[in-house]
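User: quick one, fold this
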Amino acid sequence: MFYVLRDATGQISSLHRDPVVGAQTLPEDHPEVRQFMGLDSEQQQFASLDASFLRVLEDLIDALIRRNVLCITDLPMEAQLKLFDRKHFREGVSSHALNLFNPNGSRNPESNTVIAEWTDLAE
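Assistant:
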């Protein structure tokens, strides 16, 4: 619970944990409190949840394909293209990430093992 002081226009001007004269009480999850604190709006929370759920679905589809339960060509062409686009994007992002381990789990920085090579798609 927060104690809220408002300005002349009715907007929150300050939040307090302890009682303040003239303050209104609002719960921590109140939309005005969240907005004042710069926290995610409900729409942003839903988008974040949707993105997480989409990742779960992608991983599920990958697992079904690896186990030969599903063939990528069983899906409509539009779905195939979207999956390939997302997979390609994710691989591109992860290839730019800091990789402290080589594929066999060794931490040896002196290793000459090639972890990845750049491939020019234009070739």
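User: anything notable?
Assistant: Residues 105-123 have pLDDT under 50 and may be disordered.
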